[in-house]
From TrEMBL:
UniProt organism field: Mikania micrantha
PANTHER family assigned to the protein according to its UniProt record, in alphabetical order: X-BOX TRANSCRIPTION FACTOR-RELATED
UniProt GO molecular function: cellulose synthase (UDP-forming) activity
Gene3D superfamilies tied to this protein: Spore Coat Polysaccharide Biosynthesis Protein SpsA, Chain A
GO biological-process terms attached to the record: cell wall organization; cellulose biosynthetic process
Entry's Gene Ontology cellular component terms: endomembrane system; membrane
Record-annotated active site: 126, 443
Protein name, UniProt field: Glycosyltransferase 2-like domain-containing protein
Length: 735
């Protein structure tokens, strides 16, 4: 990187701003001291209890909550924000000096403010679909017209499907020329959409000679590798379509396997030192995203040990106030907190990696080639000569690609070789090299390994957001995603956590990866109040005890604290409630099943599965303001399918309802003047908790009486009813 002696060259490309968050810390410590007091109270008064069981359970659960809270305090301690200055970068660095970037899996139009001849786009298609291939071909053609148009008029929203539908971008330029070109390009875009829609409606007639011949009668789970260079050496990025070889005899390792094939094919073809990874349901929302990332990656002084740059996961067209609690708002302070430690987690998409990081290098062994012999490279990276040479260049830090080398299509044969099923046999792929195997959250598994090698990472959140994606918009698909995450994260913890991480970074990973275990604690704690009411025991201090202020204080202060956190983010009261309640519902349903599936895998009953998130087709007709109130309410309503995932939640609800009904019946039978005494005797704390649990599960309550997809299916209902009934019966008879 040249630094001119101009003023601008002295200015930093990025600035880290650390907030110490003193008020938040103070409140967090108040909450912690209340939690500890509660534990002390439990231990001191253990002997005085008539019923040990609820007291002991409460002690265990609350110890866990305290542990979790300590993790939270450690993670949120400092909040780190990094500001990046692309203008300064552009002033000091000529376009020829920018590093090349290989883009993996992606949206239809990878168009950015970046020297395009430095970009290559690799699309991996695990479905081996001629339609995807066709769309990519047609979209590439369209891009040849669209990109110049964007550049000419400096258009910021570069995804045409957003540009032509959003209200904000009505013709900003009133020149005749612009109007004319705008109309033409809009029509062309309409044609493109129609073509693809038409193609989607009828089966592909794959003529023997056409480009589609390879897709003829192809079996999605058993076919040779298909690699096609759709476009190269134009003004646009190279575009390459890849459908890796599939064979039922080989495990394909889901997304991690696809990413490793992309890494190898791109290594052979273009070998860019940087790789950007985006999921197929994302689009680029900020044309300067690359420049922001470069500000961090090219900052020699600070960030030579920065292994990857993660952009936030934000979503478009998402439901208002986050009714299913899956839009990740509640991780804001956690993520900025981890950013102040070793660095934010890799979240599977919107992330720039240094290639050498994924090839297993550590920040201190800058030149691995000095100590690794050529045979060892074979053992690491497999038997492709082309790939080993490209990897050697990356590892030695020499020029990854020399000028006079061939275009991508010159490497098709080598690429097909490295995209084969058996290529990874006997190599370190998935174990030490590339994206790691063994967890459905391959992202976090890989990130733990990278951080464990001593790399740091950076969180880059420019305005507007760099990438926007889809979030599941129905309750069942949100749950499937949460289940996959909780199980995958737990597996990642089991597989990867070793002693090399920074201590507080390790704590952050514990916080993240223990979701699955949380489910058990949440489940027990939700049963506790009902159990106590039914059996006439207690797990909370009575109203006339002084210790009663501890749980009350905890409840009030904690909720106000979270509300205050949300208010600072500009979230609504409704969102606060939604996330609070989903904080109880999700662990007891989706995470619990995640936990069970990990256990099933540990005892050998099942294998890792990656249930792909349903991509609901949200058509752009929702951009009008015709959305009536009732529509809004209905999209936010819970829908149910036959999946048993909600069963534990329904059981919790039914048991707590039984308890409350029980209390009401008992009170109806006593004399009016004595009612208050009876209320006190039954336990105000327990009753309050039971009602609170019912409120948290209120959506399920509505589901008990809902119709069609809004109703809980009968099969789930009777199973839950049976379980709840048995629970109540057992409580009464044996405890
Ligand atoms: O066998 C597979 C399965 C998935 N994918 C791709 O993986 C990506 C993520 O899958 P998706 O179904 O969209 O899952 P999400 O829940 O949205 O994914 C989040 O969580 C995953 C980990 O569980 C991460 O890998 C993702 O990057 C992250 O966005 C998509 O681009 C898929 O095309 C494959 O290529 N092959
Ligand atoms: Mn997704």
């Amino acid at each position: 990187m040249t630094t001119n002696t101009e003023d601008s060259s002295c200015l930093p490309l990025q600035e880290k701003i650390i907030h110490h968050n003193k008020t938040a810390r103070a409140i967090e410590f108040v909450i912690l001291s209340l939690l500890v007091s509660m534990l002390v109270y439990r231990v001191v008064f253990f002997r005085d209890q008539n019923h040990y069981l609820p007291w002991l359970l409460a002690l265990v659960c609350e110890s866990w909550f305290t542990f979790q809270w300590i993790l939270c305090i450690c993670i949120k301690w400092n909040q780190c924000f990094t500001k990046t200055y692309p203008e300064r970068l552009l002033k000091r660095t000529s376009k020829f000096e920018f590093p090349a970037v290989d883009i993996f899996v992606t949206t239809a139009d990878p168009i950015f403010d970046y020297p395009t001849y430095k970009l290559s786009l690799y699309l991996s298609d695990d479905a081996c679909s001629p339609l995807t291939f066709y769309s990519l071909v047609e979209t590439t053609k369209f891009a040849q017209r669209w990109v110049p148009f964007c550049n000419k008029y400096n258009i910021q929203v570069r995804a045409p499907f957003r540009y032509f539908t959003s209200k904000s971008t009505v013709l900003q330029d009133d020149s005749l020329e612009f109007q004319r070109e705008w109309k033409t390009i809009k029509n062309e875009y309409g044609d493109l959409c129609k073509k693809i829609e038409l193609a989607a409606q009828r089966p592909f007639t794959c003529g023997r000679k056409s480009d589609f011949a390879v897709f003829c009668d192809v079996d999605r789970s058993d076919h040779p590798a298909i690699i096609k260079v759709i476009s190269e050496d134009t003004d646009l990025p190279h575009v390459i379509y890849i459908s890796r070889e599939k064979n039922p005899k080989y495990h394909h390792h889901h997304k991690a396997g696809a990413m490793n094939v992309l890494a190898r094919v791109s290594g052979v073809m273009t070998n860019a030192p940087l790789m950007l990874n985006v999921d197929c349901d994302m689009y680029a929302n900020n044309p300067q995203a690359f420049l922001h990332a470069m500000c961090m990656l090219l900052d020699y002084k600070n960030d030579q040990d920065c292994g990857f740059i993660q952009f936030p996961q934000t979503f478009y067209d998402s439901l208002k106030d986050d009714p299913f609690g899956n839009q990740l708002h509640n991780y804001y302070y956690i993520l900025n907190g981890v950013a102040a430690l070793q660095g934010v987690f890799y979240m599977g998409t919107n992330c720039f990696h240094r290639r050498k990081v994924l090839y297993g290098l550590s920040p201190n062994n800058k030149k691995i080639t000095e100590n690794v012999r050529y045979e060892d490279l074979h053992e690491f990276f497999g038997n492709s000569l082309e790939f080993r040479e490209s990897a050697a260049r990356i590892l030695s830090g020499s020029n990854p690609k020399t000028k006079d080398e061939k275009s991508p299509s010159g490497f098709i044969e080598a690429a097909i070789h490295v995209a084969g099923c058996s290529y990874e046999d006997g190599t370190r792929w998935g174990k030490k090299v590339g994206w790691l195997y063994g967890s459905a959250s391959e992202d976090v598994l890989t990130a733990i390994d990278i951080h464990g090698r001593g790399w740091r990472s950076a969180y880059c959140s420019p305005d507007p957001d760099a990438f926007l994606g889809c979030v599941p918009s129905t309750y069942p698909s949100a749950m499937i995603q949460q289940k996959r995450w909780s199980s995958g994260l737990f597996e990642a913890l089991i597989l990867a956590l070793k002693g090399n991480l920074w201590f507080r970074q390790a704590l952050a990973y514990y916080w993240l990866c223990l979701w699955a275990v949380r489910s058990i604690v949440e489940l027990f704690y939700a049963f506790l109040p009902a159990y106590c009411i039914i059996t006439g025991s207690h797990f909370l201090p009575k109203v006339n005890e002084r210790a009663f202020v501890i749980p009350v204080g905890l409840f009030v202060i904690y909720n106000i604290y979270v509300l205050w956190e949300f208010k600072r983010l500009g979230a609504s009261l409704r969102m606060w409630w939604n996330l609070q309640r989903m904080g109880r519902v999700t662990p007891i349903t989706a995470w619990l099943f995640g936990f069970l599936s990990v256990i099933a895998k540990l005892v050998g009953l099942s294998k890792t599965v990656f249930e792909v998130t349903q991509k609901e087709n949200k058509l752009s007709d929702s951009d009008g303001d015709t959305d009536s109130d009732s529509d809004d309410k209905n999209v936010a309503r819970f829908t149910y399918d036959k999946s048993p995932i909600i069963t534990p939640g329904v059981v919790v609800l039914l048991v707590n309802m039984t308890a409350v009904v029980n209390v009401v019946l008992r009170l109806l039978m006593v004399d009016c003047s004595e009612i208050w005494m009876h209320v006190l005797g039954l336990g105000v704390g327990e009753m309050f908790c039971s009602v609170w649990v019912i409120l948290c599960f209120w959506e399920f309550f509505k589901g008990l009486f809902g119709n069609g997809k809004y109703g809980i299916p009968f099969s789930v209902m009777w199973k839950s009813g049976f379980l709840a009934f048995s629970f109540v019966l057992l409580c009464k008879r044996y405890f």
